[in-house]
Design a protein that fits this description.
Strand content: under 5%
Length: 70
Amino acid sequence: MLIEPFPEKYLGKLIKKLIGNNEIEDALKRLDRLTQEEARMASAQLLRIAGDIDIEVREIADDVDRVKRS
């Protein structure tokens, strides 16, 4: 045989490393999804705040117009 069989003790270490890498990779993917979700939530909150500010500014502008016409 040209290739020696992989010693069992090294095979076990290799499998543990591969499983560990998958766990780390899965954790990083979850972290990435959570980070993206947090960014979307922050953007939505900023849009809501900007909309509230827009409404308030329009109300103030209307009040100023009423005062000018008086």
